[in-house]
Amino acid sequence: MTIEETNQRLEDLHNVLAYCSDQQNEGKIYVFKTGERICINQERGSLLSQLNHNFPNDVRDFKIPPAIEAKVNVVLEKIKAVSWRAFNQNQFLQDGET
Question: How many Cα atoms are found within 13 Å in the side-chain-facing hemisphere of 37?
Answer without folding.
Answer: 11
